[in-house]
């Protein structure tokens, strides 16, 4: 176990060192001539197909690392690239509520893997001054996993260079239902104590009670794995987001995939700005 942790830490160090790549800095310098998105969200699809392709086990026992290990490091690489580019907010769709319907051993394996990665995530985000949020119906998680998530959130609360939001036990429908319930309860309390004489629930109140109120609406939603669906992810927040689908599997995502997604966003930036401006005017 100790050898595995040291190996992972060494990998983390290598990733941190590679962030200063001269070639990548030149590419990113050219990209920064155009508008850079403030918030990029990732639907990390293709992990199971990657595991099958690489003949990896669910728990990472085969070949020195499973699909969850590869997916974790892919997220860390994207976090580094986004920070280097100047993208402030990064959101990752890590685990859907619907995924609890998978085989119990698979769900248990993923939860155990997440718990193991929290220590490495803690080291990396502190080195990079990244604030971490975990959003979703966290009551569905085990006590240990939920406590670790809250601990990491509190430990990084003072950081502001980047904000990483990890959606776990999340679906957009659940988020909207949660926000409406919270808004209705708050309105009931206000009316009961005569703090409000208006029976109407404002849009701003509903949005304030969204899990994703911790970040602005995403400029780009990137989905790997070749699918063109949002899969119950950020349905409320993606109204004017640029959607970018790519065939590459999530663990195989690289710098050029991110570059092409941002170039595509820059090409359509004027349209998205106009739509958001019209929405605000309304």
TrEMBL record:
Cited InterPro entries: UPP_synth-like (IPR001441), UPP_synth-like_CS (IPR018520), UPP_synth-like_sf (IPR036424)
Top EC group: transferase
Protein name, entry field: Alkyl transferase
Recorded GO CC terms: endoplasmic reticulum
Gene: LOC107911255
Top-level taxon: Eukaryota
EC number: 2.5.1.-
One term of GO molecular function: ditrans,polycis-polyprenyl diphosphate synthase [(2E,6E)-farnesyl diphosphate specific] activity
Keyword Chloroplast among UniProt keywords: no
Functional summary from the UniProt entry: Catalyzes cis-prenyl chain elongation to produce the polyprenyl backbone of dolichol, a glycosyl carrier-lipid required for the biosynthesis of several classes of glycoprotein.
Pathway annotation from the record: Protein modification; protein glycosylation
Keywords: Membrane, Transferase, Transmembrane, Transmembrane helix
């Amino acid at each position: 176990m100790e050898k595995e942790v040291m190996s992972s830490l060494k990998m983390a160090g290598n990733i941190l060192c590679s962030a200063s790549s001269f070639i990548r800095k030149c590419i990113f310098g050219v990209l920064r001539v155009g508008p850079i998105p403030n918030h990029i969200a990732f639907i990390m699809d293709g992990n199971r197909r990657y595991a099958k392709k690489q003949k990896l086990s669910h728990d990472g026992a085969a070949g020195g690392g499973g699909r969850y290990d590869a997916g974790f490091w892919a997220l860390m690489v994207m976090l580094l690239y986004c920070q280097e580019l100047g993208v402030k907010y990064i959101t990752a769709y890590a685990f859907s509520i619907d995924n609890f319907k998978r085989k119990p051993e698979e769900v248990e394996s993923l939860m155990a893997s997440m718990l193991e990665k929290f220590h490495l995530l803690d080291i990396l985000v502190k080195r990079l001054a990244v604030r971490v949020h975990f959003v979703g119906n966290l009551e569905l998680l085990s006590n240990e996993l939920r406590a670790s998530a809250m601990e990491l959130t509190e430990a990084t609360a003072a950081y502001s260079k980047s904000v990483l939001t990890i959606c776990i036990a999340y679906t957009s429908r659940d988020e909207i239902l949660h926000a409406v319930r919270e808004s209705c309860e708050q309105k009931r309390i206000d009316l009961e104590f005569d703090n409000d004489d208006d029976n109407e629930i404002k849009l701003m109140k509903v949005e304030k009670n969204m899990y994703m109120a911790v970040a602005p609406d995403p400029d780009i939603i990137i989905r790997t794995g070749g699918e063109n669906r949002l899969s119950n992810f950020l349905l409320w927040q993606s109204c004017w987001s640029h959607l970018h689908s790519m065939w590459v599997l999530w663990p195989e995502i690289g710098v050029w995939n991110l570059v092409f997604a941002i170039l595509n966003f820059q090409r359509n930036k004027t349209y998205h700005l106009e739509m958001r401006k019209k929405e605000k005017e309304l």
